[in-house]
Specification:
The chain has one domain: Rossmann fold (3-Layer(aba) Sandwich). The chain is α/β, with parallel strands linked by helices. The chain starts with a strand and ends in a 17-residue tail after the last strand. Helix 4 links the parallel strand 4 and strand 5. Helix 1 packs across helix 7 and helix 4 packs parallel to helix 5.
Length: 245
């Protein structure tokens, strides 16, 4: 019996940024355990045009609000050896500290679930790497305050996990900037962000894929937050053109 191929578990793997990371993982030679909550349609549609990858994709449906760590346990059902974890799934919805239920829900999905999945990964896999997808824009914002707080927590957890899980597991994060317009946002507003950024551009998923490859392949890096944001972090929060509030 042949040796199992190395696999990456990617949460929220079937659309948007998760789909880009799935494609990059396949190009790097990994199998992908593609988690999704409700629909895997974008990835399945892509596979119909690229059938050569079909034998390296394993679909895993789950609600991360319910025992997210069980994803790691389920991975043993697939003929692949888990070596990487990408905590990409998140919720991006409006809400601030006046809505504590909303805060709890976003913290559960955007911060606690990645922690629980990573913790089980460290226990059962023991050696490999984890990449958390945070956010380059975690500045003050009343409309998306709870989302920003949850991503701040995930950023801090990245460093704490890197310290705790070493030397067997490296933990890093990618903090994307304006890569894809939010589903609820006007595309014209997203395009206007270009003029506010030092590099005068937005929307480069290839840059995220390159950052991902770099963090996976460099085995001397851990505990780093890699901003891929066209210079957003260089700008004072008060001058940055925010999403409409």
């Amino acid at each position: 019996m042949g040796q199992k191929k190395k696999a990456v578990l990617i949460t929220g793997a079937t659309k948007r940024l998760g789909l880009a990371l799935t494609k990059q993982s396949l190009d790097m030679g990994f199998s992908v355990i593609a988690h999704y909550r409700t629909s895997a349609a974008p990835l399945k549609s892509w596979l119909t045009k690229h059938p050569r990858f079909s034998d390296r994709i394993y679909f895993l449906q789950a609600d991360l609000a319910e025992k997210p760590e069980s994803l790691i346990d389920t991975c043993s059902d697939f003929p692949a050896a888990l070596t990487g974890l990408v905590n990409n799934a998140s919720q991006f919805t409006e809400g601030n500290l006046d809505n504590l239920n909303h805060l709890r829900n976003l913290m559960a999905i955007n911060a606690v679930a990645p922690l629980l999945i990573a913790r089980r990964f460290s226990q059962k896999v023991g050696k490999g790497w984890i990449i958390n997808i945070t956010d380059a824009d975690i500045s003050l914002n009343k409309k998306f305050q709870n989302y920003r707080l949850s991503k701040r927590i995930l950023t801090e957890l990245t460093c704490q996990m890197a310290f705790l899980y070493a030397p067997g597991i490296r933990v890093n994060a990618i903090a994307p900037g304006a890569i894809l317009p939010p589903i609820h946002a006007d595309r014209s507003h997203f395009n206007r962000l270009k003029s506010t950024l030092p590099l005068r551009k937005t929307g480069d998923t290839k840059a995220i894929q390159q950052a991902y490859s770099f963090l996976v392949e460099n085995n001397s890096i851990t505990g780093q937050i890699l901003s891929v944001d066209n210079g957003h972090h260089l700008i004072n929060d008060n001058t940055f053109l925010q999403w409409p509030v």
